[in-house]
Design goal:
Layout (H helix, E strand, L loop, with lengths): L4 H21 L3 H22 L1 H6 L12 H26 L4 H25 L6 H5 L11
Length: about 150
């Protein structure tokens, strides 16, 4: 802890104000460079004496909340993926990229998968995931190609 924090604080504020003045009002580039470096040395010295770096690094960071229901989140993501597939299947039929019969068969498969996922979600709901589940959480994916 410095013995005279008020002196260092005054020096820091004066150097900051002086440096701002030099940057704005001094036209000669060499004079601006020399005065700016001199004032920068005062800024670094006084901030080190005050302990500005300790204040900045010692500030409490925002708490990181870990997801508690990772397995459930993964199943909901699967559900959304299947719904997207169902939607794109219908869009493909409308655009004429697929026949109605082939699309209907594929939509039946997707519908059965959706029912299975919903049954799995019922069993997983409310279960807090372990740390192992959190480490294996899948990354967010972009929209499906197609």
């Amino acid at each position: 802890m410095p013995t005279r924090p008020s002196l260092e604080l005054i020096a820091l504020l004066a150097a900051l104000i002086g440096d701002a003045y030099v940057l704005v009002f001094v036209d000669d580039p060499w004079r601006r460079l020399l005065l700016g470096l001199l004032l920068l040395a005062v800024i670094v010295w006084s901030s080190a004496r005050i302990g500005v770096l300790d204040l900045i690094t010692g500030a409490p960071a925002e708490p990181v909340y870990k997801r508690r229901f990772v397995r459930l989140r993964g199943q909901v993501q699967q559900l959304l993926d299947e719904i997207r597939r169902l939607n794109w299947m219908a869009v493909d039929v409308e655009r004429g990229f697929r026949s109605r019969d082939a699309a209907a068969q594929e939509m039946d498969v997707i519908e059965a998968r959706l029912k299975t996922i919903i049954e799995e979600i019922r069993g997983t709901a409310g279960q807090i995931s372990s740390e192992l589940d959190e480490e294996s959480e899948p990354e967010e994916e972009g929209p499906p190609a197609g």
